[in-house]
Model the fold of this input.
Amino acid sequence: MSPPKFGSIGFLADPTATLSAMRAQGPLIEVKLPILGRVRFAVTDAAVRALLKDTDTFVRNPKLATGKPMDRLYWWLPRSMRPLTLNMLVQDGETHARLRRHVDRAFARVTVDDLRPRIAAIADRRLDALAADQDIDLKAGYTRQVPFEVICHLLGIPEGDWPFFIKRLAPLSSANSIPSALWSILRLGAVHRRLRSYFARARGDGDLGGDRTLRAGLIGALVQIADTESGSLSEDELLSMAFMLFVAGHETTVHLIGDAIVALSERPDLRDRLRRAPDQMPLFVEEVMRFYSPVMMTKLLFATRDTTFMGQPVRKGERFSAMLIGGSHDPDRFPTPETFVPDRRPNPQLGFGAGPHVCLGMQLARAEAQITLSRLLDRYPDFALTRPVRWTARIGIRGPRELRVRLRPSG
Ligand code: HEM
Done:
């Protein structure tokens, strides 16, 4: 079989045939990817779970497996930007547990249920601003804006600064090569500096007086943990965590909501059903997660020793990744995986990962998707795509690049 092209239009539009051809080769397949090089992918439900849970054999930080520091993977990144790569997704063991514990505590300040009215208000405000009966990009005006504004609110970023961040972070999502990634990352210097200035404002350094909005958000909570518990979080870790929460906390949700709109655009009867029975929305969102898998694969993992895994020999230092979309389309776990079943139950989909790095924001992402879609359906149940879907050409991501639609008000 020729290597699967994860970013290809054919694969993104319908990955079923490629996924079953992969599984036919066994639970592990080898692929050569641009930028990342040779990677072995776990492609079945059992292999994905086993890979992500075996933290003795597979680690995130290459230094623990190969002795080569993380920097080697980011040779193309300016040195001043490297702290951004030290986030908890690429840490293991006690370091990861410490970072995750701090974010969990910061998150625990607000429950997702507390946030629901705020998410609904943000969605309504965005819907009010959309032009009806015209050809518009719903992604630019709605499905990107809502998760972006929710994460800004959660972090405690003053509202006047929201446009500053969206302008600089949006190009990151379309980067699909080293030059384009580098170009968009170079523009992040200002983001980096602004986040550091927030730490000072949350602390009330000099005559800043401790900004109340910042103190009330996640940034304030993390700064407080860093300052009151010695050795808890270094300044670079704080920066990398705030940045990661920013990006991981909205970009992926944008793709989930976009995928859901693609699914709904093809099924007018389902829109009616979800309007009449909103309690079905959570099951629908879960099936979008399974069927589309907005994040199709995990970060790299490195083997710490020579061993066997899923019956195949593994050499120390080899690179692995979990193909989440493969696991979520495994017929041994999901009957008729190639069919979109809006009320599928049970649905142990793998789109949020598994093991110690399982997504920390999954409940928030689910709530955002449910509310954003319900509000749209309430107001514009008859929306129609005006152009065929074009997919984001970024390896590992499955979401529409834009959503050209015409909104027709109900009644
Ligand atoms: C539909 C939306 C989302 C999807 C599909 C998604 C997916 C994922 C996946 C697959 C991982 C694990 C990656 C790996 O193992 O390499 C992950 C980790 C993570 N996600 Fe999400 N995510 C979503 C939304 C969010 C949101 C809203 C937040 C925060 C507000 C968030 C924060 C995180 C963090 C902090 C981690 C790292 C956890 C760790 O390393 O322990 N995610 N996410």
About this structure: Residues 88-89, 100, 151, 244-245, 248-249, 252-253, 256, 294-295, 298-299, 324, 351-353, 357, 359-361, 364-365 surround protoporphyrin IX containing FE (CB under 6 Å). The CA atoms of residues 3 and 116 lie 43 Å apart. The chain has one domain: 9-406.
